[in-house]
Please model this.
Amino acid sequence: MDLVTAQSEQRKLHKRNILVFVMGGILLCALFLLSLFVGKYPFTIEGLLAGDDRQWLVFRMLRLSRAVVGVVGGFALGIAGYVYQTIFRNELASPDIIGVASGASAGAAFGILFFAGSIAVTVCAFGGAFLAVVFTLLLASMDRSGKNATVILAGIAVHAFAQTILMCLKLIADPEKELASIEYWIMGSLNGIDGDSIGFNILLIAISVVILVILHRRTLILASDEGEVKMLGLDANAMRLVVIFTATIAVASVVSMTGLISFIGLVAPHIAKRLIKNNNVTTMILCGITGSCLLVASDILARSVAATELPVSIFTSIIGVPFLVFIIYKGGKEV
Amino acid sequence: MSSTELVKVKNLSARYGKKKILSDISFELKKNEVVGLLGTNGCGKTTLIKSLCKIIPSEGSIVIDGTDVSSWSSKTFAQHCSLVPQKSGIGIDITVLDVVLMGFNPFLSILEKPSKVMISKAEEMLELLGLKNREFDNFLTLSEGQKHLVIIARALVANTNVLFMDEPESSLDFAVRYDMMTTLKKQIVGQDKCALVSLHDINLALHFCDKLILIKDGKISSMVDVVNEDISSIEQELRDIYGSIRLLSTKDEAGKESLIIVKA
Model:
């Protein structure tokens, strides 16, 4: 390829990337607005403008908080998935890989059994996820070699332990009430999110995402061998722990609000990386936008296709899988 | 330490578990020197380079630029020394240019990104190593030899005083490995830098290196001054490592004398 062709190819790629980004942004805005107006309790813009208290309450407590959690949660899961896949150099890696999901489930089950109210369940789920991450990273840090495989192995051990706790809690749960609540929580839903209790989680997600964006260049370096990372000026072990911990805190903040949401952390980065022909910080942000679109669209379907609300994870898979297959089918990719 | 010495290694030893791999290694690297590290498979060349880079723990003293490196952070170390590993572990989709720009990381703060000057230096280095207009290719789609050249470019752009290279010629073809070593020499000689290069290609070592460190069973078997020693003496030292070999002297078109090794 001569220089002129290379430069024009580069310009074409750049234009295409901008187009993908703009279209992703427009799609997300459209889904966000649609999400505000879909649901059991109808309200109108005229009613809101007229200052109808009941309509404002529905808008603020049911719709706005739900749409915001959809956007923010999907964004965090998409970015965390990208970080995991990069750092573990494994395209199958997702936030579940180090036991955060099972930790959150065990925590939520504990909250449902021993405390009352959705805030308590959120706090317990976050605590469970947080403890799972801490245990995983502590176990992994015992191996001084700092291999990726050690973190994954530690995650599998913590996952198995959290599953055991969850099973024990299910055994003592009342099958009519608490067991059903635990199962429903595990299936994941944006239903019943309390607008007043999500501020702390959203703040944690925002801080985590900002840190991950700042550390993006270093995260790419971490996708090399230990010696290389060290000779590129990074303390590989410390940096890896910081990045994994931050990404997992973002995931824990999401799942403690919504319950388990499968597939977004895995599929959003794959879709984004195939749409944008690059791997830089814009790719990371597009992974977040893709995650947001998937979660908000899934939530709209979850509350509109049947008389009763369905678990959101059903739709994250139903939308995500065909879209991913279509993109893979459409052609191989180059960076 | 004299002003011409950049690296001074004294009584270095290293082990994997209980097995001792290196013992009592001492040598110096001076400014403007390219020093070859030769030895058979498994003799400890890679372990020595990893020990010098503090990638694996070792005993003994390593002094670089007049300072003992034991207290240096990874960042400080990387500001003084670069490494070309035997094989890069990069396992993600990333452009060639982004891989080369990683070389500037030790000189960037956490919020800084590579400047335009750094980007043009990276592009120049890729051009020097024969990878012009490949900067936006996916690193993973390159051949092993091209990947290796990208990793060499990444080490060279860092412009550190000391360069460690572990078998940089291993996946390069005959012409490219000579071009690569020529580029390397230009980056070192006259720039007050030095390089320690582990090599399997002895002809390449005899052609480009000023000195050779010969390793046998984890110890230095001998140090060869390629420029000043006579041919029979070098031949004798190489025989101790490689068995029955012969060195032949030849001249290129410019009349420069070169040594060639043949199995006797």
Summary: Helices of chain B lie at 45-52, 74-80, 96-101, 116-128, 144-157, 174-188, 202-208, 231-242. Chain B is about 30% helix and 30% strand. The longest strand of chain B covers residues 5-16. Chain B touches chain A through 38 residues (CB under 8 Å).
